[in-house]
Amino acid sequence: MTSTLSTPIATAPARQGIARTGIAGLDDVLAGGLPTRHLYLVEGSPGTGKTTLALQFLIEGREQGERGLYVTLSETSEELEQVAQSHGWSLDGIKVFDLVSDEGLSEDAEQTILHPSEFELGETTREVMKLVGELKPQRVAFDSLSELRLLAQSPLRYRRQILALKRFFAQMGCTVLMLDDKTSGEGDQQLHSIAHGVVHLNQNANTYGPDKRQLRVVKLRGVRFRSGDHDFDLDRGGLVVFPRLSAGEHGGSFDGTPIPTGTAAFDEMLGGGLSPGSNLLLAGPAGVGKTTTATSCAVAAMRRGEKVAFYLFDEGLNSLRQRSLALGLDIDPFIASGQLLIRSFDPAEVSPGQFAQAVRNAVEVDGVKMVVLDSLNSYMQAMPGGQYLLLQMHELLSYLNLKGVVTLIILSLHGTVGEMRADIDLSYLSDAMVQYRFFEARGEVLKAISVIKSRTTAHQTTIREFRLGANGVEIGKPLSDFHGILVGAAQYTGRQPLLGHSDNAHSRA
Fold first, then answer.
1. What tens digit of pLDDT does each residue of 78-98 get?
2. CB atoms within 10 A of CB 392
3. Which of 157, 233, 377, 451 has the fewest Cβ atoms surrounding its Cβ within 10 A?
4. CA quadruple 292, 388, 380, 232: dihedral positive or negative?
């Protein structure tokens, strides 16, 4: 299967006077890109991806036929070439200028480079202006401001030099990215007030697994940008930004006629089947049959010609394939045909924004009509510290509902019998909820299923026996001769036959 996990959906063509950054997700956040002929601040601690972002910005300009200039005070041109090569890029056509050369660091030039600061700062500024005047670039990256700040030695002198550079770049028609590693402390308000826009990069190392990275646009004058934190990856190929999902921006018309689950008795319990534009929460203890129920619904949808996306956070793909085949729900042909987009995630490796982008791609690019999330418990582990899970899940479910997608969410409850609890309560977010329970009867451990609620249909309130057989999901008649099943204290009060009773009798004969 071809994965679209790390490829955000392309944005609309840029407006006139807008410079694309070369990062599709960031352009989406910026409402198309950066307004030209302005100075922008890109700030973040070392290792967050500032240099890579600046290189992508210049490479995008080169692709658009614009001249680019990279002015560096902190890295050599050789180091920048190595960074570019690590991403598979070439810097051909982009001018890289080492403002402090080997000659400038020699003993003969020591007094010129380091003292006095007034001469050094003025010389640095003049060198930049001279180079820009000769090359006349449309795009400039300045790396980094921490060295310029040290040369100034005074906040007033530093601000004046930045203002002088800003006016000069504007007169020359340059769009400028100034990089700052935040060595002056948390948030340099001097720079924030001068810059036309500020992009903040953050690296969160306080989680298990790879560092999680977020991007935030602090300000962008005259543009209604997408505020808030946006997850991004830094890997070979550069930055990939996953814009924060806002469900209210999406929608469309769809047929709301309930669709069958593939099991007639289950359709009856749900009041006619699964409603497009709604989500169904399957809650119960481990091993009760939640994943198999979801697989059965997915196979029924694919047999009707629909596409399904199945996201695994708990179970491995091979395990799911083998178990489904044993239950008469062979998913291999659908994987081969591309009808089933299935992906197994390691919760420690994926960010919430990255997962939401994968779902968006599946719906908007691949035309998926059903999404299965197995399970919510493990998805929660993808969140740094588990915070904002409810808000993120609310946006994702609302988005899928507006797109007319049927969403099946699996939630594992702690325990097997008696009182059970969940890591988190999402029942109020679900449009319909199915509850599973184990119960004992005639010396056997049996299973029961019931529909607790449904906002879209008139569901049944009965509790029925449930089991998995060679033909997949089997649901029996209402357990009218039992009570206390949902509290884990089932008592038999009649002679009602159970599923498999005739099979057992036949085997004894």
1. 999 999 999 999 999 999 998
2. 20
3. 157
4. positive
